[in-house]
């Protein structure tokens, strides 16, 4: 086994950097959640409600990968008790419940944290040439797509 080429070394280093980035992203989300009196799963659920819109408990369970039964109900109960979401009857079908995020509450509790991080990112990105920013956009977009593919693969394997 010979020595790795510079390209192979860079690709191996990228794998290390991406692993470190993903671990820190998970730990950051957990720290943010705890600051807002939630756990990571709860924060992800309310984030999905904000980005993808209101949902039934079953739809939210699908988005998060939680079971539609007790697990998602417990998440919604905790979020409602903390004031992050509300449940309303669907006007079209009174048997259905729709869960909606209280965007103002979320922004009040955790918005300043994301604001600080966003400001730091903007400050850093402002130092980069346009081509580097475009490359970063492509890299993170593709990383997100690959992660989404793997999430679906893992959920399908269950």
UniProtKB/TrEMBL annotation:
It comes from Cellulomonas biazotea. SUPFAM superfamilies: Winged helix' DNA-binding domain (SSF46785). GO terms for biological process: response to stress. InterPro entries: ArsR-like_HTH, HTH_MarR-typ, MarR/SlyA-like, WH-like_DNA-bd_sf, WH_DNA-bd_sf. Residues 31-133 form the HTH marR-type domain. Transmembrane segments: none annotated. SMART domains: HTH_MARR. Pfam families: MarR (PF01047). This is Putative HTH-type transcriptional regulator YcgE. One of its GO terms (molecular function) is DNA-binding transcription factor activity.
């Amino acid at each position: 086994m010979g020595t790795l080429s510079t390209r192979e070394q860079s690709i191996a280093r990228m794998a290390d950097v991406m692993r470190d980035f993903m671990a820190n992203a998970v730990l950051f989300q957990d720290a943010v959640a705890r600051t807002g009196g939630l756990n990571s799963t709860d924060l992800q659920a309310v984030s999905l409600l904000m980005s993808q819109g209101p949902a039934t408990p079953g739809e939210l369970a699908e988005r998060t990968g939680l079971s539609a039964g007790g697990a998602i109900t417990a998440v919604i109960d905790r979020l409602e008790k903390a004031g992050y979401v509300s449940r309303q009857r669907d006007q079209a079908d009174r048997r259905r419940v729709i869960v909606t995020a209280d965007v103002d509450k979320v922004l009040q509790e955790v918005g300043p944290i994301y604001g600080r991080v966003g400001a730091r990112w903007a400050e850093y990105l402002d130092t980069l040439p346009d081509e580097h920013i475009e490359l970063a956009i492509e890299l993170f977009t593709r990383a997100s797509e690959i992660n989404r593919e793997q999430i679906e693969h893992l959920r399908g394997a269950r």
